[in-house]
Amino acid sequence: MPMQRRHALAAIAAGALPAFAFAQSGWPNKPIKMVVPLTAGGPTDLLARILAQPLGERLGQTIVIDNRPGAGGDIGAEFVAHSEPDGYTLFLGTSGPLSINATLYGNLKFDPIKDFAPITLAADAPFVVVVNPKLPVKTLPELIAYAKAHPGKLNDGSVTGSAAHLATELFKRSVQLDFVHVSYKGAAVATTDLLAGQIDLSFASTPGVMGYIKAGKLRPLAVTSATRLKDLPDVPTVAEAGVAGYEASVWYGVLAPAGTPEAIVARLNTELTRILQDKKVLQQMAQNDFHPLGSTPAQFGAFIKSESDKWGKVVKAAGIKAG
Predict the structure, then answer these.
(1) What values do phi and psi take at 207, rounded to 5?
(2) Does 1 fall in a domain?
(3) Is 7 a domain residue?
(4) CA 112/CA 93 separation, integer angstroms
(5) Where are the alpha helices (DSSP H) in 215-261?
(6) CB-CB contact of 238 with 246 (8 Å)
(7) In a domain? residue 16
(8) Which domain holds residue 95?
(9) Hey, which of 152, 179, 230, 273 has its CA 20 to 30 A from 173?
(10) Which residue from 203, 183, 196, 166 is spatially nearest to 309, judged by alpha carbons?
(11) What is the mean pLDDT of residues 272-294?
């Protein structure tokens, strides 16, 4: 995701807003709801809570987390898309409902591009390519060579249509490999089967497998980010390992319903940008393997469009059908 986003944070935060921009509306004068489209306790919910407390402190109002899971994040997204654009409903959106599901499911009751006012890209979390240690490969090039020598014999596991599934399919198409995809209802179940040797490999979120990697129960071959991870400094990126231009991750951003006043969007962008530079927040994010981003609303809108195009092509080319 090349938008020199981290370097832009300071410049974005430096833009001060005129005091009169908010005096006329009195916003905010009551608690603000932040909708999370996935269950409580998961990574998206955790990031929402990391951001909500300092945002509430800066705005002088409580940020209430409202979990609305279901349909791959579409239930929560639809709720926000049809909410009043008054600045009192926010959405911690993810790559699923904002860039994947339109192609995967079709017939959505909201438009990811037209029905939201992007505020800022907040964070991303890459995947790590992990294999069961019994598989006789120690590097990504060795995995590629082994898979080509044994076509159709290796299997990978993930939730069908998830960002992890699409990251795997993008990799397979990039190097012309043939893995057999095993569908799971949750990432944790896939990891359990990987540990047991029921599947051979997985593109897994770092929080879900880091403990097993450190214990030697899973072998990391590469990470899907543009740069190496601090917690896995000796593990190369997929691009470094020979797949030029490859990059994939789950990303998170804050949005509001389309039509939300520009002054409110600008204020939220300014405050969130400052929060994403706060040492305490950065420490919390690092502990949970989130990488802080930051963008202008326009950059985030363009990013959603480019991601929708990118993953839509992968879904169609791989013939992925929602389960």
Answers:
(1) -60, -30
(2) no
(3) no
(4) 10
(5) none
(6) yes
(7) no
(8) 32-124+250-318
(9) 230
(10) 166
(11) 94
Domain count, the chain: 2
Q: Residue 230: helix, strand or coil by DSSP?
A: coil
Residue with tokens 């995995």: 143
Q: What is the DSSP string of 47-114?
A: HHHHHHHHHHHHHTS-EEEEE---GGGHHHHHHHHTS-SSSSEEEEEEHIIIIIHHHHT---SS-TTT
- CATH number for the domain harbouring residue 154: 3.40.190.10
Q: What is the CATH number of the domain that holds 41?
A: 3.40.190.150
What token pair was written down for 45? Answer: 């919910």
Q: How many residues does the chain have?
A: 323
* pLDDT-derived band at 234, boundaries 50, 70, 90: very high
* Helix boundaries (H) for 111-175: 140-149, 163-175
Q: At which of 184, 218, 241 does a domain end?
A: 241
The tokens 């929060």 sit on which residue? 275
Report which of 189, 195, 231 is spatially closest to residue 212, judged by C-alpha positions. 195
Is the overall model pTM greater than 0.85, yes or no? no
> Position 299: which residue type?
Q
Q: Does the pLDDT at position 9 exceed 90?
A: no
